[in-house]
Design a protein that fits this description.
This protein is mainly beta and about 120 residues long. About 5% of the residues lie in helices and about 45% in strands. It has one helix and nine strands; from the N terminus they run ββββαβββββ. The protein has one helix spanning about 55-65, and strands at about 15-25, 30, 35-40, 45-50, 70-75, 80, 90-100, 110, 115-120. It has a five-stranded antiparallel beta sheet, with helices on one face. The relative contact order is 0.35.
């Protein structure tokens, strides 16, 4: 089956689902984690939390979600997507957290097709 979407990343952004393959048509995903802020959390402005296996996967979830401006990744595996740069409250101390604004300079191309990832909602 094929589900066309009206929003990049579906309604709430991507989630891990075995056996599903998803892609955004406007893919130009570049990454540079050199400006990631370690032991910093961005509070508020949450679009939702989802499990992620790595900082890179959390970043990809943000890039694949419409209106995602930043994110905070907890090394325990939680990925918090934010609709505002630096969240609602700005940066704060956050042990075992890494945060990144999506307007960070970019230089590495990421893959556009995501295996075992679902872009739920916003079906046409």
């Amino acid at each position: 089956m094929c589900w066309l979407k009206s929003k990049r990343g579906g309604e709430a952004g991507p989630s891990l689902v075995n056996g599903v393959i998803s892609a955004n048509m406007d893919c130009n995903n570049k990454s540079d984690q050199s400006c990631a802020k370690h032991n910093v959390g961005y509070g508020g402005a949450d679009m939702g939390q989802r499990p992620a296996n790595s900082l890179s996967q959390c970043e990809q979830f943000c890039r694949d979600s419409e209106h995602c401006a930043s994110f905070t990744y907890q090394t325990s595996g939680a990925c918090w997507l934010k609709y505002r740069k630096s969240g609602e409250k700005g940066p704060s101390n956050g042990e075992n957290m890494v945060s990144l604004n999506m307007d960070c300079p970019t230089d590495t191309i990421q893959d556009c097709v995501h295996k075992d990832t679902d872009f739920g909602g916003s079906d046409l």
